[in-house]
């Protein structure tokens, strides 16, 4: 996780603070927009807004969440209406562990790590496109979560929402994304489509399973209190079914992150942004 720390209480060197996180900002923009050109426009617009609003930056605070919040706001103002898509998967139709069940139904679960096997066969572009098809609030949360391994609190700061809202959006985003990723896998011939994917009722008739399953997301992200982490861990040590489900979810998250993490900023865009920054600095000096 990369954060830029300006000198405590001192003036911020904008360019020196931006360049180390430019790749992450570009990757985030790429997952919010339709293509490379739109992503470059979004980062450039956010940069200009940040420069104009540099007086609002609190000395000693983290530059990255501040800049990402500006980038997110620029996206909402300029792209949100244009980027809306017909979304055909409703929350009511998105059961828990859809991809886990679908993979098993397609008889691909013989792999030692079926989630990683599935994701490794998908292109980064296909995964990004699946994220773009999420409702915009979930898209923003997922784009931050899967690419930069930010904590829930940091995501909340970027999106300017309570941490409870982040938990809710990420939980729903993951459910919907599982179905969207499965569509990608079937459409691209990565896996055969089973006749029907039937997600059976979880049957949470044991207290231990219920405690573990309802805390699946927060346990994987280590966002539980120590006592709750210990409670879930103790259950996983004795429940093979929950352990299998947790392992699948963890591998899926890690696989998606691995695909999305390595994004190179085009050198032409780096040069263009550097020239723009220098031009802005000269204008400000006069």
The overall pLDDT, averaged over residues, is: 81
Low-confidence segments = none
CA(first)-CA(last) distance: 37 Å
**What's the count of strands?**
0
Quickly give the structural class. Answer: mainly alpha
Molecular shape: globular
Main sheet attributes: strand count, strand direction, barrel closure: none
Order of helices and strands: HHHHHHHHHHHHHHHH
In short:
The chain has 286 residues and is mostly helical. The chain is built from 16 helices and no strands. Helix 9 packs across helix 11 and helix 10 crosses helix 11.
Describe the structure.
By secondary structure, this protein is an all-alpha fold. Helix 7 runs parallel beside helix 15. It starts with 13 loop residues before the first helix and ends with a helix. The model has no long low-confidence stretch (mean pLDDT 81).
Layout of strands and helices, then pairs:
Layout: H1 14-18, H2 22-32, H3 36-52, H4 63-78, H5 80-83, H6 98-105, H7 114-120, H8 124-132, H9 136-148, H10 152-159, H11 163-187, H12 207-213, H13 216-220, H14 226-236, H15 240-261, H16 267-285
